[in-house]
Amino acid sequence: MEWREVVEHPSLQDLPFKIETNAEGYIMMVAAKNRHRLYQARIHVWFEHHGEENKAMEECNIQTSDGAKIADVAWRSLEFIKRNKDSDPYQESPEIVVEVISPSYREKAMKSKMSLYFEKEAKEVWFCDDDGNMGFFNPQGELERNELFKEFPGHIDIEVG
Questions:
Q1: What is the DSSP letter of 9?
Q2: Is the alpha carbon torsion for 90, 37, 122, 149 positive or negative?
Q3: pLDDT reading at 41 higher than 90
Q4: pLDDT tens, 71-80?
Q5: Which CATH superfamily is domain 32-143 in?
Q6: pLDDT confidence of residue 51
Q7: Which DSSP string corresponds to 102-148?
Q8: Which helix (H) or strand (E) holds 63?
Q9: What gap in Å lies between CA 68 and CA 91, rounded to an integer?
Q10: What is the pLDDT of residues 123-140, one digit of tens each?
């Protein structure tokens, strides 16, 4: 299926899963736990408070060589927004793509997604693990700290109280 067919198909509306496609157009569903969504929301809110408003988004659709992938959070520059307007999925990657990874998420899958985002010109790919620890990467490899938002924390706390 083409991405537009997926998002417009009546039977695929309001599913409790994140939907992606692969290169052949097959639909893949990924269930996200509340913990995952809390990290996702905290990262999005951080961008909104430390950058210009409306440049961060959750559930960002990006067309890759292996189908449409959904980044948990993405940060887009004004230039990116002007170039891509309301295209869905984006045909290029936003500058920063963030994935929240669960304990069952395999390292191979993480590296594959990272590679796909860099193919589409992402400047950095960030990963948040199930304990809130952040990992930052650019096309050359792992970074000690991210380069685009140096003040972004190396750990995200979702605990209350």
A1: -
A2: positive
A3: yes
A4: 999 999 999 9
A5: tt1808, chain A (3.90.1570.10)
A6: 73
A7: -TTS-HHHHHHHHHHHHHTT-SEEEEE-TTSBEEEEETTEEESS-SS
A8: strand 56-64
A9: 9
A10: 999 999 989 999 999 999
